[in-house]
Design goal:
Blueprint: E1 2-5, H1 8-21, E2 28-31, H2 39-56, E3 59-62, H3 67-73, H4 85-104, E4 109-112, H5 122-136, E5 139-140, H6 150-160, H7 172-182, H8 202-217, E6 222-241, E7 244-245, E8 249-250, E9 260-263, E10 265-269, E11 272-275, E12 281-284, H9 285-292, H10 299-304, H11 309-318, E13 329-332, E14 340-358
Parallel strand pairs: 1-2, 1-4, 2-3, 4-5, 12-13
Antiparallel strand pairs: 6-7, 6-14, 8-13, 9-14, 10-11, 11-12
Amino acid sequence: MLVHICCSVDSHYFLQKLQNEYPNEKLTGFFYDPNIHPYSEYYLRLLDVKRSCKMLGIDLIEGEYDVENWLEVVRGLEHEPEKGVRCSVCFDRRFEVSAKQAADMGEKSFTSTLLTSPKKSLKQLQSAGDALAQKYGIAFVAPDYRKASGTQEQNILAKEDALYRQDYCGCMFGLNIQRDQQQKIADELFVPVSKQIQPESIESRVKMYEKRWKLEEEKKPYKIVKQRFLNWRLKMGLLRVKKEVIPAHFLPYSTIKGEYTRGKIEYEINGLHAMNRDEVKFITLQQYNRVLETQYTTISSLIFDPPLFEEEVALRSRLGLSAYDLSAILVVESIPANKIEILLQSSIYSDVKESLLEL
């Protein structure tokens, strides 16, 4: 039986139920999910599915990440709600490819771990699976493992085996709708031009779960713990002096009251130059290099290849500011002597992140 897999939380429980119900059936996992965005999230879910299948002794095949074809299929359905028409089209697409894969492999049946997802409609999935099974001359197996406290068992198992628990279905459209309803920013879709890894970004999770994989291979003990913290994302930052755009690097946790401010440099203390409005501060690239012991020659090189996020955060205290300081700090090649204008769109918000502790 070919088993289409959407994520480890659903598949880990679903596969074990199938192993118990079909003990003589060879199960093969098929990870085909071009609906998952961005690619880093797709890679992270695949990584955890590989770990799950390894634990269960199940072979896994990775389908093509043909995201452009998927986007074309759902064109015009971007604003459909969860469990709406877009989801039906998405199931049809993934089930079609899965059914064809099963038929090409000579399998007599296929199924999908989507059946155990509490956010999906069983009726929707059954209809899509049956139609494609008939088309390809195979059977669609649709057990209901949610009943009899199945969802609770699934969550307990996911926690026991420390599976990666994503908090959105997968596609960018559903994610944006979900975050709008939660009045949160969709920071999963934020990728800085610098490619600097942001706190609690998908990229930071990838790094952590790759390290977890390595520790498990080396049989070293670890624990994944959660902590609440103040997160930050920069949407846009621009510095103008006498209406001319000047290269500037905005340090992490830079904020202002609104999105626009203007003024002039009022005073300087120990290399930190303060503007006369909105607590904005400036340091030179030379000062930046001196404090962090870096060797940047231009602001552009700093913007596109900055140090680690944590190193830049630590710079604030090394400049004499408190741990609670959220002032906008701009790094420039020379301190502006004329009228300054700043456009800054950034968000600060309470968030939760996972950390990996080696024991």
